[in-house]
Design goal:
Elements (H helix, E strand, L loop, with lengths): L2 E5 L3 E2 L5 E8 L9 E7 L5 E8 L4 E3 L7 E6 L4 E6 L8 E8 L3 E2 L3 E5 L2
Parallel strand pairs: 2-11
Antiparallel strand pairs: 1-3, 3-8, 4-5, 4-9, 5-6, 7-8, 9-10, 9-11
Length: 115
């Protein structure tokens, strides 16, 4: 089973771009039929799936976030990244990376959007 670890700034100012990285160990992000997601949890609320990047690098985004979301990957570092543009305080959440099919989660990283 793979292990996931999120990293990135804990505080972002409104209108800026949020960038987070998920470092994967115990397996390759290019392993066949593996898919990698970002999921966030708002304070006191449920989870929101943000999108997915496949083992081949294909991406699919939550339609509600598509205009602001971009995923990429660095296969040499075994990492995949999230960029969320034009953030507002409503983007304050705990951000998790997740893998399928083994359903592994990172520990989550809390991001606050505030001036």
């Amino acid at each position: 089973q793979v292990q996931l670890q999120e990293s990135g700034p804990g505080l972002v100012k409104p209108s800026q771009t949020l960038s987070l990285t998920c470092t994967v160990s115990g397996g390759s992000i290019t392993a066949n039929n593996y898919y990698w997601s970002w999921i966030r949890q708002f304070p006191g609320k449920g989870l929101e799936w943000m999108g997915i990047i496949s083992y081949g690098g294909d991406t699919y985004y939550n339609p509600s976030l598509k205009s602001r979301t971009s995923f990429s990957r660095d296969t040499t570092k075994n990492q995949f990244t999230l960029q969320l543009t034009s953030v507002t305080p409503e983007d304050t959440a705990v951000y998790y990376c997740y893998s399928f099919p083994d359903h592994s989660w990172g520990q989550g990283t809390r991001v606050s959007v505030s001036s």
